[in-house]
Specification:
Collagenase (Catalytic Domain); single chain; 6-stranded mixed sheet; alpha/beta; 16 strands; 3-stranded mixed sheet; binds zinc ion
């Protein structure tokens, strides 16, 4: 594909500090229990929302939220490799995600809670796409976490992910798949808000994650794992041994383990996609597949003063074709905005 686009370069201070060990997802149950159970029952009885031959392409808009604090780099190659992994995991659901153009730079805070991100980040949302904000730190209840997501029935939609999670492509793919799962209507496999799911499966339609082909799970962040294998001997209230799946994308196993989606999870995703998100873009051509990096500090420029700008331009075009670009520089002062155009 050959695209012509304009990129607004924003000059920012860059400063990197070490990154702490974040815990996993902080998405908390939010929703109407009665309605969710009714929808789950509807899915059980209809079982027709998914057609195995159809592939839905779903547009993502990715934001690199840069701050004047930690300002971790967004590792774009790991981001794309992670997306490839996530797409493998979502193949059984017939859903494939793609990024509209390249990640967009956004000046923001060093850390975000869920309420802060809804207030401060969602105004940047690109409509009819899933908006994912990669930030330096994510907080929930004073704990550093890996990320969170909105659910389909919420007014304001976004996903926020800690940039530290995309330092390797498996972890990047795991957390992306997990948060996209929430976005498309999945709960944690250990969810307890609607009741604790029993190992014998007798309450699987009304408790836990409301999904009957995911084994009961006690929350794998509490133990029982050797690598990505469950070796624990945890039991439920009946004394039955748990057999949770650490590979399931909605478990709390380490994000690099998350790689599997169940058949009924795939159906649930398709139910909410069709109900809430069928207007999402399946193609987008309004933003170029280019990345631009620069660590230029804010500049004070005087009339007639030459300036040197060092920019790294990258072509993220998946076809490895050449791309023609126009770069638009914006210099803002109190009175006016001056635009400069540089042709490649
Ligand atoms: Zn989660």
């Amino acid at each position: 594909m050959s695209r012509i686009g304009k990129i607004i370069i924003t000059a920012l201070f860059a400063c990197v500090v070490s990154h702490g060990n974040a815990q996993f997802c902080g998405t908390k149950f939010r929703g109407d229990v009665k309605q969710l159970r009714a929808e789950a029952a509807k899915m059980q009885h209809s079982r027709k929302s998914m057609k195995s031959s159809d592939i839905q392409y779903v547009a993502l808009t990715v934001f690199n939220v840069e701050s004047l604090g930690a300002n971790l780099p967004l590792e774009v190659d790991k981001l794309y490799e992670g997306l490839d992994f996530a797409n493998r995991y979502y193949a059984p659901a017939g859903i494939q995600f793609f990024i509209c153009g390249s990640p967009r730079s956004l000046l923001g805070n060093t850390s975000y809670t869920y309420s802060e991100s809804r207030r401060l980040l969602t105004p940047n949302n690109v409509s009819n796409t899933i908006n994912i904000y990669y930030v330096d730190e994510v907080f929930a209840a004073d704990l550093v976490i890996g990320g969170f997501s909105s659910f389909p029935w919420e007014q304001e939609q976004l996903i926020v992910i800690d940039k530290g999670f995309i330092s390797n492509s498996l972890s990047s793919g795991g957390i992306l798949a997990h948060e996209l799962g929430h976005h498309l209507g999945l709960f944690h496999t250990h969810e307890t808000f609607m009741g604790v799911e029993l190992v014998n499966g007798s309450n699987c339609e009304s408790a836990g994650d409301l999904i009957c082909d995911t084994n009961a799970d006690f929350n794998l962040s509490t133990g029982g794992l050797e690598g990505c294998n469950y070796v624990g001997n945890f039991v439920d209230v009946n004394g039955d041994l748990y057999n949770p799946d650490p590979r399931n994308i909605m478990s709390y196993a380490p994000s690099e383990c998350l790689s599997r989606i169940s058949e009924l999870q795939a159906e649930r995703i398709n139910f909410y996609y069709n109900q809430e998100f069928s207007g999402y873009l399946q193609d987008c051509d309004f933003y170029p597949d280019l990345s631009v990096d620069s660590d230029i500090a804010d500049l004070t420029i005087f009339s007639g003063q030459p300036i040197e700008l060092e920019l790294n331009l990258g072509n993220q075009n998946s076809n490895n074709e050449s791309v023609r670009a126009e770069i638009l520089f914006s210099i803002t002062n109190e009175d006016q905005v001056s635009n400069f155009l540089i042709h490649s």
